[in-house]
Amino acid sequence: MSTLTISPSPHVHSGDSVKKNMYGVVIAMIPALLFSVYNFGIGSLSVVITSVLACVIFEYVIQKYLLKGDVTITDGSAVITGLLLAFNLPSFIPIWIVIIGALVAIGIGKMSFGGLGNNPFNPALVGRVFLLISFPVQMTAWVKPGAFPMSIADITSGATPLGIMKEGLATGATTEQLMQKLPSYADMFWGFTGGSAGEMAGAAIILGLVFMLVRKIITWHIPVAVLGSVYIFSAILHLADAAVYAPPTFHLLSGGVLLGAVFMATDYSSSPMSNKGGIIFGIGIGVLTVIIRVFGAYPEGISFAILIMNAFVPLIDRYVKPKRFGEKPAVAK
Amino acid sequence: MLKTFSLGGIHPPENKFSAGKKIEALPIPTQVAIPIAQHIGAPAKPIVKKGDQVKVGTLIAESAGFVSANIHSSVSGTVAKIDDIVDASGYKKPAIIIDVEGDEWEETINKSADLIKEISAAPEEIIKKIAAAGIVGLGGATFPSHVKLSVPPGKTCDVLILNAVECEPYLTADHQLMMEKGEEIMVGTQILMKALNVDKAIIGIENNKKDAIAHLTKLATSYPGITIEPLKVQYPQGGEKQLIDACIKRQIPSGKLPIEVGAVVQNVGTTVAVYEAVQKNKPLFERVVTVTGKSVSKPSNFLTRIGTSINTLIEAAGGLPEDTGKIVGGGPMMGKALTTTEIPVTKGSSGVLIIKNEEAKRKKMQNCIKCGKCISACAMGLEPYLLMTVSQKGVWDRAEQEKIMDCIECGSCSYTCPSQRPLLDYIRLGKGKVGQIMRSRTK
Amino acid sequence: MNVVIITVLTLAILGTVAALVLYFVAQKFKVFEDPRIDQVEEVLPAANCGGCGFPGCRAFAEALVKSDDISDLNCPVGGAETMKTAAGILGKEVAASDPMIAVVKCNGTCENRPRTNKYDGATSCAVAASLYGGETGCSYGCLGCGDCVEACTFDAIHMDEKTGLPVVNDKCVACGACVDACPKNIIELRKAGPKGRRVFVSCINQDKGGVAKKACSVACIGCKKCQKECPFDAITVENNIAYIDYNKCKLCRKCVAVCPTGAIHEVNFPPKKAKPATEKPAAPAKTEATSNENKTSSDIKNKEE
User: Fold this and answer.
1) Of A58, A305, C79, C112, which has the fewest Cβ atoms less than 10 A away?
2) A138: exposed, middle or buried (C-beta count within 10 Å: 0-12, 13-18, 19+)?
3) Compositionally biased, Low complexity: which spans (chain C) (predicted)?
4) Are C252 and C231 in contact, with CB atoms under 8 Å apart?
5) DSSP β-ladder status, C100-104 and C187-191
């Protein structure tokens, strides 16, 4: 008999681990990834591979040489950041821009706050917004999807539905007229529209969501709150003036709302801890997204909305407490 | 839809290897060490000295206050000495060590196995007898039973709840007791109902013990007022607060006792002990202990005399396996890791769990990734991640504000944490410190 | 031109109004503070360690200014010098205090104290102590999780990898943070002694002699030999443990010689017989005081035997 170990209870563990959760998210992103590669071909593939590799390498270099601490690149969180960043970029964007984005995402968005678990903002979004502000032209050079285009010559540029809507409204057209020019809802749901590498395929993203819910990686609260509040808030606007405000289904299916609600708002460390907090957080994102889309300068608002709400997370965690046991009044006779 | 408690909860693998194994009476050892602190409250005062002759059931240490309990000899023989031995707490505590000679019982004890259904004792007499017999909560909390049964003035009790949940993985002592001593449990319940002056008793059993549910439901038809409540399997249902919530949908307010919502909870094992004490004059000197583990060759349920070294139990269950890394007194979720195999069985020992070497060590702790799984698991609606941080940093006022004292130490948070963080380790530490601060404030 | 004048005028008027408002507000809400508090705070070490018993240096400065008798107030970090300067500013008398140092009263290294169990919980002595007596047969000794190291804000206490025991170095200012942090109460603040020379019992095991000795080969067994030997009545044996009163001890070291287990340690004394200069524990060698002291005393003992 070896020396007996003494440790405090519990003496068993569920076997859950950071890795399991992180790679679970990666698996959930695979459908959207495949779809993106099918639509944008080599352009999407190169962006994804560069982004993931750059994120992992930057994390390794920073942990090993700058912080001189443990290297935790195998936990999968850098892979997620890389994938999410790639999903948020237009395909065929120059590779060097992707690398800068990865450096900002990992270096500023994540490691400068102390690494996994300590970052107040979603690192991929920090990278994305940095690129959007620094390289507005390249960042909005959308392309039309095709069946696995092999080079930039095979594709045609095309605006996103949101872009069409925004510019159209600016010229005085009504939403009804604009909707004629736009792809059908079915096309938007199945992903045959222009947009970032990974954000167009609603069906693929929902598949990922179902996987994550079944594996209990995330709870339903944040995605449902975001999507629900986008729908309800835009529906109210649409009912108020249908000519100026686009219908709610359009808001739900266009742009990155689905991607944001499912993969970016649910990022563990930049979302609230409790489920109640998650709902408040989600509603905030939904409302802000619609406000930015409808009244702001940018056609798309989900990234900004998530980053703004990220900043409120410590406040939400401080004041929104889970329901304590015994809080409801006792019913003793 | 089966009932269960309303917040949190987890589903650890059950691993009930010793389920269905008949309760075996363990041979009496040659020496027993009976600690004088086997219960919550003041340690008992020894009333024997070296060289004294004792019989089975002789009072050897007296209750030292209201919240304390009598301790009786579990064997007949001579008191060898009163010395400090390491007990389950990991510290040296005084114990009465008795050399065994024969097996002579006190004459007052009725040794027959006949069932006595007639309850002749009056309520006060019942409580007095329970106190005299040194009965404490046998589920593991070891709270003196007579204290629980003495309803404080101004409070009323309208329901008795029997805890037959046994939600700890591996343990089967209560399950087996229900299968073999069903009638005794029924009579014991009637005794407790009489003592509390209630006409309703609920026996809460988790649905993984279908045979016990069927058996007791059949028996209950001839005992008025007793109902069996099958509960959805979920840990920590055996927690007093969770069980009351599950059975009668009443939540005990923070910092209050079950009597606040008109309920008293007793363990089924305790109920059998109550039956024996009241109907047969038999003090509490033996209990059923499960010896189990993945590597144990003969997982068993033993009827064991208090003070027997756990070594004897392990030998009887096929010996200590080569690759043992940890021995736990109790279940894997709330039990205590034991320092040696020499530790004696006490009133609170519900099981001895042998854990293999490779499962004994914790994995490396990582950063908190803020996944919030500990919050979802917490049966008390607390935020374990936050309580750990404030305890680590020693921010005791915040810990108190975040209701650290509500923690029932079930371990669901540590069990769930993907980062393998020792949440409960620090929360328990914080509870100790905050408790001290709160007590010093009321002084 | 007109625009410029109007701009300048508007800004000037705005500035004046704002200045007036600020002035009146400042007058209205002025809080009088004794200027000496600032002066005293200036000379304090600004470590904010709480060693004086006040929450930070500012609070201590306030206490110094407010109380008439400051003889029972002491800044352990700054020591006598600082206290004298502070008292000088205030024109008050200060009691002379001897410099103190934290002393770890356990010598249960892996060799001296065989392990019986392996602790595998949170790395915190407080957590370990609330659950178990420790990994060895001795339930009084050092747990080795380093709560004292964690508590120290002066980088003065570190774990010795080899022995698994904390070692105090000369950065120690005797603030007492480690004393409070140790759940086993092993660390004591003792007189640092002339040239850092001090004698102390490096054990707090209250078990009976046989039990203590079985658990740890260098345990104090409470045999009282030292008590009989001491010419100054500095040693008392209570609960099977000897304690040397550092105020009575004259550092004669007779107790060290008679201790059968080597539980009494002497630190920073020059070796009795000539030794190579490199081994001489000079002043800087105090850094490794505790790790050396065992060697020093046992070396001496061996030679005497």
Assistant:
1) C79
2) middle
3) 279-290
4) yes
5) antiparallel
Is C203 annotated for ligand binding? no
Domain extent, residue A106, equals 18-139
pLDDT over threshold 70, residue A150:
no
C-beta atoms of C127 and B429 within 8 A: yes
User: What is the C-alpha separation between C243 and A30, in angstroms, rounded?
Assistant: 70
Across the interface, which of C120, C126, C139 has its CB nearest the CB of B92?
C139
Q: How many CB atoms lie within 10 A of CB C18?
A: 10
Range B231-257 burial, b when 16+ CB lie within 10 A, else e: bebbbbbbbbbbbbbbbbebbbbeeee
Q: Give the C-alpha distances (Å, rounded to integers) separating B222 from B12, B179, B226, B441.
A: 36, 17, 9, 52
Tell me how crowded residue B51 is: count the other CB atoms within 10 A of its CB: 9
* Interface contact flag, C120 A3, Cβ < 8 Å: no
Q: How far is B338 from chain C (nearest CA, A)?
A: 9
Whether residues A330 and B335 touch (CB distance < 8 A) is answered with: no
DSSP state of B329: E
Identify the band that residue A186 occupies on the pLDDT scale cut at 50, 70 and 90: confident
> What's the token pair of residue B250?
């009443």
pLDDT along chain B (443 residues), means of 10: 89 92 92 92 92 93 91 94 86 92 90 87 92 90 90 90 93 94 94 93 94 94 92 92 93 90 93 94 94 93 94 92 91 92 91 91 90 93 95 92 93 94 94 92 81
Using H for helix, E for strand and C for coil, what is the string for B112-140? Answer: CCCCCCCCCCCHHHHHHHHHHCCCECCCC
- Look at residues A234, A225, A274, A273 and name the one whose alpha carbon lies nearest to residue A252: A234
CB B349 within 8 A of CB B330: yes
Considering B263, B280, B297, which residue would you say is the last residue of a domain?
B280
Which helix or strand (DSSP H or E) is residue B298 part of? none
A169 with A94, same domain: the answer is no
The answer for B 359-418 residues in CB contact with A (under 8 A) is: 359-363, 366-373, 375-376, 378-383, 385-386, 403, 406, 409, 411, 414-418
Query: For residue A11, is it within any domain?
Result: no
- Please enumerate, as own/partner, the contacts of C30-34 that have beta carbons within 8 Å and a separation of 24 or more: C34/C65
What are the phi and psi torsion angles at A285 (to 5°)? Answer: -65, -45
Write out the DSSP string of C86-141.
HHHHHT--------EEEEE-----TTTS-B-EEE-S-S-HHHHHHH-S-SBS-SSS
Assigned domain for B112 exists: no
What does the pLDDT look like over A89-114, one tens digit per residue? 888 889 999 999 999 999 999 999 98
Measure CA A117 to chain center.
17
Q: Do B426 and C131 touch (CB under 8 A)?
A: no
Residue-number span of the structural domain to which B259 is assigned: 123-280
What are B303's strand-pairing partners?
A: B25, B288
How many angstroms separate the CA atoms of C217 and C136, rounded?
12
Amino acid at A110: K
What is the C-alpha to C-alpha distance for residues A5 and A205, in angstroms, rounded to an integer?
46
Same domain for B129 and B274, yes or no, is: yes
Residues A165 and A92 in one domain: no
Around Cβ A216, how many Cβ atoms within 10 Å? 12
Residue A253 lies in a domain: yes
Closest CA–CA distance from residue B235 to any residue of chain A (Å): 12
Residue pair A116/A77 in contact (Cβ under 8 Å)? The answer is yes
Instruction: Locate the chain A residue with the closest alpha carbon to C118.
Output: A5
Number of structural domains (chain A) is 2
- Spell out which residues of chain A touch residue C121, defining contact as CB-CB under 8 Å: 6-8
Distance from CA of A208 to the nearest CA of B (A): 18
Task: Give the residues across from B82 on adjacent strands.
Answer: B96
**What six digits make up the tokens of B81?**
């000495």
What is the dotted CATH code of the domain comprising C35-90?
1.10.15
